[in-house]
């Protein structure tokens, strides 16, 4: 836009003339008159139109830069939150693992107690439901642990196990 502030246009045109009452026949028998024009256009007064275009271009640039800064902030926040979730998930996974082990032990104890007749079927059923719920919770926490791990890995493009950048060979992916 700044480059167009002061512009000079050079133009040239060549043409033949022809006359006829029917449109298709206009260019059949052209006259020997040729028109050649060469000229220069220099705007003397544009009422601030070009300066306005420069201001609009600067404004658009500022908007794009602002969007880029906001996207960078959002990206950093996403990474921060994912790392927080991952760290918390590791603790949740440990708790779920311990709860699963306790529920398994409770169920074994309940089976032995049921066999000697000290508890009824409802208590045994309750122990089994608790065991199953604890196992499902443990699997769910394990799933989220790895989900957060691979989300961080894909956003950062970093392999934490080997401490190397992740690279993809797109040619090989396309061939498959």
Which secondary structure elements does this structure contain, and how are they paired or packed?
Layout: E1 9-16, E2 34-41, H1 49-115, H2 121-156, E3 158-159, E4 164-165, H3 170-175
Antiparallel strand pairs: 1-2, 3-4
Helix pairs in contact: 1-2
Please provide a brief summary of the model.
The protein is mainly alpha-helical. The chain contains three helices and four strands; from the N terminus they run ββααββα. The mean pLDDT is 86.
What does this structure look like?
The strands form two sheets. Strands 1-2 form a two-stranded antiparallel ribbon. Strands 3-4 form a two-stranded antiparallel sheet. 62% of the residues lie in helices and 11% in strands. By secondary structure, the protein is mainly alpha-helical. It starts with 8 loop residues before the first strand and ends with a helix. The protein is elongated. Helix 1 packs antiparallel against helix 2. It has three helices and four strands.
Descriptive key words:
elongated; mainly alpha; 11% strand; two-stranded antiparallel ribbon; 176 residues
